[in-house]
Automatic annotation (TrEMBL):
One of its GO terms (molecular function) is N-acetylmuramoyl-L-alanine amidase activity. It catalyses: Hydrolyzes the link between N-acetylmuramoyl residues and L-amino acid residues in certain cell-wall glycopeptides. GO terms for biological process: cell wall organization; peptidoglycan catabolic process; peptidoglycan turnover. SUPFAM superfamilies: N-acetylmuramoyl-L-alanine amidase-like, PGBD-like. Residues 1-18 form the signal peptide. Keywords: Cell wall biogenesis/degradation, Hydrolase, Signal. CDD domains: PGRP. It comes from Pseudoalteromonas tunicata D2. Coiled coil: none annotated. This is N-acetylmuramoyl-L-alanine amidase.
Length: 303
């Protein structure tokens, strides 16, 4: 009886305290927990994808179906929220972008129904390749086109997300292949990054700037592998500066090409690839290329 008598005033006191919390003073020292918007495809139809994302070991904040899917039960497409945005969805895996890891903790993930498929050679004999084709031949993929109505829904959803999360800058709208190098190909070369850019979603380069760099590189030749690695790293990719055209460099170059040069996603460092990379650096990382990547420090040179 004594314990109950003592407990009642304490509970009343806590209740009163919770009702008198003031929001009169607000700190300006904060930012959003959401820093990235990540695009995916599912590789399965509606039913398989829904099962995997709601009952399996992975999840995503949003799922967008496509037309012509016999397993989709409705006559019109809609956006489906599977995880509330304030919660962490498990869509990014072991990931890296712009110096940050654990992208699940800091991102919103969108899955699009698309039955792309990739086969992988299970064994890699060496980390150093005689050519990009050596690594490229170890993966064989098919990429169906995305449904236009599906993309329209994606554009509307993405614009809404960006309006509510202003800390997601254009270079932080990425594909799964950008943040999980070598393991993921989605959203693939048919994903309309440039169309999204035209609607204010994500990053793209200025063609005139890329053309200027292309013409200069035709005369000057390609920069060193280390300089290319440095620029890719400063743009956002999780690549180490080794000075060698190794497997991680192939994976990063291919991911970059899937995003910005999907018509030549071979993983080879080409003049066109470097011209586009330099144009993006000029637009979004002004000064960094000259300041940090003229004589980059190799991993082997670090103390």
């Amino acid at each position: 009886m004594f314990k109950k008598a003592m407990l009642l005033p304490l509970m009343l006191g806590l209740s009163a305290c919770s009702q008198t919390v003031s929001t009169q003073f607000r700190s300006e020292n904060y930012n959003s927990r959401i820093r990235f918007l990540v695009m995916h495809y599912t590789t399965g139809d509606w039913q398989d994808s829904l099962q995997a994302l709601t009952k399996g070991e992975v999840s995503s904040h949003y799922l967008i179906p496509e037309q012509g899917d016999a397993s989709y039960p409705k006559s019109h497409l809609a956006v489906y929220r599977l995880v509330d945005e304030q919660h962490r969805a498990w869509h990014a895996g072991v990931s890296h972008w712009q110096g940050r890891s654990n992208i699940n903790d800091q991102s919103i993930g969108i899955e699009l129904i698309n039955r792309a498929a990739c086969a992988h050679q299970p064994q890699v004999l060496t980390e150093i390749a005689p050519s990009a084709a050596f690594f490229d031949n170890q993966t064989f993929c098919q990429y169906p086109n995305f449904d236009l109505q599906q993309i329209q829904l994606l554009i509307e959803l993405s614009k809404d997300i960006l309006a509510r999360n202003p800390d997601i800058d254009p270079t932080a709208v990425v594909g799964h292949s950008d943040i999980q190098l070598g393991n993921k190909q989605d959203p693939g070369p048919h994903f309309p990054w440039y169309t999204l850019y035209q609607h204010g979603i994500g990053a793209w380069y200025e063609h005139a700037t890329a053309s200027d760099h292309w013409q200069a590189l035709l005369t000057e030749g390609l920069p060193t592998v280390a300089q290319v690695q440095c620029n890719l790293q400063k743009y956002g990719y999780g690549i180490e500066i080794t000075g060698e055209f190794d497997k991680q460099t192939f994976n990063t170059v291919k991911a970059f090409q899937l995003h910005f040069l999907p018509w030549q996603a071979t993983g080879e460092i080409t003049i066109k690839t470097v011209a586009v990379l330099f144009a993006l650096m000029d637009k979004y990382r002004a000064g960094i290329r000259q300041q940090h990547c003229q004589n980059p420090t190799l991993v082997s040179d670090r103390g």
